Amino acid sequence: MSETFKLKVPKESYQQTVNELDGELERLEGQKIKMRTILSRLQGETFSGSDVQSTIDVAKETLDRVEKAYVKIKSQRDTIQEYLNSTETDASTLQTNVSHIQDELPDLFK
């Protein structure tokens, strides 16, 4: 029989992870812009030849990898943020419910 273990992770750890992922997303966005600039220059009329075409192909592959990494990290970041938002909503709902119960308790004993 297997047992399920739950680790209690502080909310601050999740927020720190979101912040770090935001930094990584900014870095990747900068890389995407640089790669697009390089591709634009290489595809201009200034350069020609098979070596340039090979360089263009490598730059396109690199841009594709950067874009895929961006999408994956963004998805992970959004999932963590949604979890944080849901815990805040759950905590608020719980507090509201407790307040309503506390307000109604005196009426139960009348």
Feature tags:
single chain, 110 residues, mainly alpha, elongated
Quaternary state of the chains: single chain
Low-confidence stretches: none
- Spatial separation of the terminal alpha carbons: 50 Å
Q: What is the overall pLDDT average?
A: 84
Using only C-alpha atoms, the radius of gyration works out to 26 Å
Q: Report on the biggest sheet.
A: none
Helix % is: over 70%
Structure, described:
This protein has 110 residues and is mainly alpha-helical. Helix content is 83%, strand content 0%. The protein contains two helices and no strands.
Care to give the gist of this entry?
With 110 residues, the chain is mainly α. The chain contains two helices and no strands. It has a domain at 48-89.
Question: Strands, helices and their partners?
Answer:
Blueprint: H1 11-42, H2 50-108
Helix pairs in contact: 1-2
